[in-house]
Design a protein that fits this description.
- The protein is an alpha/beta fold and 219 residues long.
- The chain contains eight helices and seven strands, in the order H-H-H-E-H-E-H-E-E-H-E-H-H-E-E.
Length: 219
């Protein structure tokens, strides 16, 4: 099965995301892929989770800090955090099959199956987490900027939100393109909700794999 997930096959598979324009279709996409996802990302040498973990460590020093892995998928980011010594991590994702894969890694305390964004508010109390980590959740038909208020809501004042994505999505996803996504980030900063403390770009040999990470501190 690992040989099946060549780079070309993965790119072809990801391209079908443009057709997953409902939660039901997106959930089916990731439920079907969940058993193979980690192998596929390994074959792609996907560095998003490790980069996000390294960035979070710069700002969140306590290994007991309460961290929320938002749109966690199969738990790749959680694994990186656990390997770095963090012990108090929760996860949320809309794909039940992905959450079950993540659960078996034994790096999370609480795991939730829930779609988020727009009117779908997370079933989490205000000011619950010291930090949020979001890896690869902004892509075709994934999260939109309307999730920002909810991310801010569940993060403690002074806490950090580490969000990374493949840089190409800033051009390919219509709702992010032409600076729209970053303009929405700036809107919340002007409203005093959060402030950008770092914008980090990791360039790869294959430019399609470049990763941009936004780190905001909640006000």
């Amino acid at each position: 099965m690992a040989d099946y997930w060549t780079k070309e096959r993965i790119v072809e598979h990801i391209s079908t995301l443009k057709d997953t324009n409902t939660h039901e279709k997106l959930g089916q996409f990731f439920d079907d892929w969940a058993p193979h996802y980690d192998k596929a990302m390994e074959s792609m040498k996907y560095v998003g989770p490790s980069i996000a973990s390294i960035c979070l460590q710069k700002y969140v020093k306590s290994k007991d800090a309460r961290i929320f892995d938002v749109a966690s998928g199969t738990g790749l980011a959680g694994e990186c955090l656990a390997k770095s010594g963090y012990t108090n991590i929760d996860a949320i994702d809309g794909s039940a099959s992905s959450i079950e894969v993540a659960r078996k890694k034994n790096v999370y305390k609480n795991l939730y199956v829930q779609w988020i964004g727009g009117d779908n508010k997370m079933d989490v109390e205000n000011d619950s987490y010291d930090a949020l980590i979001i890896v690869g959740a902004f892509a075709f038909n994934h999260l939109k900027s309307d999730v920002f208020p909810d991310l801010i809501r569940v993060t403690k004042p002074g806490g950090y939100i580490v969000n990374n994505l493949r840089a190409r999505w800033l051009k390919l996803e219509a709702s992010y393109a032409d600076g729209k996504l970053e303009a929405d980030m700036e809107k919340h900063e002007k409203e005093g909700k959060w402030k950008l403390v770092e914008r980090h770009v990791k360039e790869e040999e294959d430019s399609d794999q470049n990763v941009v990470t936004f780190i905001h501190q909640v006000c």
